[in-house]
S-adenosyl-L-methionine-dependent tRNA 4-demethylwyosine synthase TYW1
Amino acid sequence: LDVSMDMWSYFHTCLVSIWLHRFYIYSAVAFGISLWIVIQFTTTRTKRKSEKSHGNPSSLEGTADKLGNGCTPPQAQEVHVAGVKIFYGSQTGTAKRFAKTLAEAVSSLNLPVEVINMGDYDPEDGLAEETSSRNICVFLVATYTEGQPPESAAWFCKWLEEAANDFRVGKSFLQGLRYAVFGLGNSAYVDHYNTVGRRMDRWLWMLSASRIMTRAEGDCNVTQSKHGSIEADFEAWKTKFLTRLQVLCKGEKKPCSGKCKKGKCKSSGKQSKESSDHEHGTSEHETTEAEELFETSSEEEAGGTDSVVDVEDLGNIMGHMKKAKVLLLEGVWNVHGVSHSGYHLVYFVCQFLQAKLNCLMICPLFSGYKLIGSHSGVKLCRWTKSMLRGRGGCYKHTFYGIESHRCMEATPSLACANKCVFCWRHHTNPVGTEWRWKMDQPEVILQEAIEKHQNMIKQFKGVSGVKAARLEEALAVKHCALSLVGEPIMYPQINHFVRLLHQHGISTFLVTNAQFPEEIRRLEPVTQLYVSVDASTKESLRRIDRPLFKDFWQRFLDSLKALAEKQQRTVYRLTLVKAWNVDELKAYADLISLGKPDFIEVKGVTYCGESSASSLTMANVPWHGEVVSFVQELARLLPEYGIACEHEHSNCLLMAHSKFQVDGEWRTWIDYGRFQELVREYERSGGSRTFTAAEYTARTPPWALFGAKERGFDPLDVRFQRKSKARDISGC
C-alpha cells in the first residue's frame, strides 16, 4: 500500500510539475515544429536548385541555335520586340537628355523607338495597352526635392501608386508589360536617394509587369557615383540595356532572374546564369515575391509619409503576405513583412493601449488616409478624379445631383461598432462601442480636412485629361460625404461639426450603421441622413454586420424608429450579398415600414479582395440584372415607393417615396442653395423654425431615371471604356 501511495504521489508530483512548466513544453514543441518546417523548406529549395544546375545542356544549345542574330528577325520568325518606348520624368533636363541618347542607340538596332514625356502621357489609358504591344518600356525618372518626383512626372507616379494599392484594380493589371527602370538621384541626400525610381519599380512589379533587367541608379554625387558621374552611370547601364534588348529580340521571353533588391541583383549577375534560370522556367513572381514586394528604401525605413499603407488597401497587402511564410516561436510572421496575424497582434496592442491610456484612436501602423488629429481622416474619392476628367460622376450625382468633383469624403471618427463582412477596410480601423479616445475640436478637424482635400486636388494640375474649369471648381468644396470609414455619429461633437460644414456652404451626407439610436435622435438637421440596413433579420444581421453590441438588434430597430422621426431627407442603404441576404424581401419591407425612409438605395456588394477578415468571394457579388430584379420585387411589396433612378456603373438603384413624384415627375435631386437657406433659418431661430425634405427638392433629369438609355451616366461626360481585359471590374 505504501508503495502504491508513493507511486501515486510521484505521479501527482509529475503532473503538477508538467502543468506548472507547460509554457516551456509548448515552446519546445513549437520550436521543434518550426525547426522541422525550416529543414523541410531548405531541403526542398536545395533539391530544386540542384535539379536546375544539372539540367540538360543540349536543350539550351538547341534553343540558342534556333535564335537568329540581330534585332530585326526574319519574316518567317515571330516578332519578339515590336519597339521601345522611353518615358522620362525630368526637372533639370538630364533625364530628357538621357532619353534622347538612348533613343538614338535603340534606333541603330533597327527598332522603332518613341520618347515620351510622362507629363504628356495618360498612364490609365496607355499603360494597359502596352501589356499586349510587345514593346519594351523604359522609365528614366529623377528624384526631386524631398524625395518627390519632378512636376512633369507627378501624376504618372501618383496614378501608378494608387493603381498598385487599390483593391479595385486587378493585381494582373499590367501583366505582359516588359520594363526597365533607370533612376536619377544624388546620394548626398541620403534620406531620399533615388526614391522615385525605386518606388516606380516596385509599383510596376506589384501590378505584375515584368522587369527585363535589374533597376539601375545614376548618382549626381561624383564622389559616390559607381562610374565617376551620373553620365558614366547611364552609359554603363545603357550598354547593358542594349545587350539585353538584343537578346530579347532574338526570342528570349523571360525577364531577369529576379531576386532584385535596391538596384542590385542577388544572383551571380552573369547573363548565362540568368538565361539558365529563364530556360528552366523560373518566373519573376516566384523568385522575387518575398524579396521585392516589401522592400523598403531608406526614406521608408525612416518613416517617410509616402510609405504608409492605406487603411483600406491593407487587404491587398494581406493577400500577398500569405506567401513565403515561416513559423517562428511566437507566431506567424513573413520573411520580409508582418503577416495578417501579425498585423492583428499589433492592432490589438494598439487597442489595449487606447483603452488603458485614453490615447490616440489612430494606430501608426494603419495611418494611411490624410489623417487629421487623433481620430479623423479625409481621402480623395475615385469618382472625384473621374469627374475631374469628364468621365462621369458617382451614383450620388445621378440620384441627388451632387457635383462629384466638389465632394469631400471624410470622417470625424475612424472607429466603428461593427465588423461587417464586406467592409472594404478589412477591419483595420479601430472598433468600439463608446468614445474613449482623445477628442479634437471640430474647427481644427474641418480646417485640416479642407486643406488636405485641396492639396490632393491641386496635384491634378496639368494632368492629362483633367478639365481646367472643373479643377478650379473642385478647390471649393460643396459637398461632404461623412462616410469614409467608421461611425461619424460616435464623435461627441458631431452636431457642432455639421453646423460648421453648413456655415461653409457645404452640404452634408451622413451615414450611420444603426447602432446609436439616441445619437440619431440628438442629431441636428443634415442634408441627407443614411442608415445602413445590411440585413432584415436578427440572425442575418449578426452574420453580416458582426456588431459589437450585445443588444445590437434592439439598437438596430430603435435606430430605424429614430430615423422615422426626422423631418429632413432620410435614406435606407441596402447592400445585397448573394447567398446571404437577397431572399429576405418580406422582412425588408417590414423594416421599411418601421423607419419610413424617403429613399432606399439598393446596391450590390463590392468585392474587396481576399481577406481572413471575411469569407466573401466574387460569387457573392450580384449581377446588375439581379439587383434590378430584387428592387422590382421589393417595389411590389411597397406600394408607396417607386423605382426612380439607376446607376449601372455602381450596380445601384434608387427607390423613392411617392411624395417625391410631383405631377408625374421625380424630384429626387436636391436644391442645395435652398437647403442652405433653410438650415441657416433653423440655426438663427434656435431650432424653432424646422423644415422638411419636400422644401428643398429639385427635378431629376431624364438621363438619371430608371429605364433611360443612359443607365445613369451623365451625357455631358464621356464614358471611359477600358481596353484591357486583365483587371478587376468590381466598382464602388
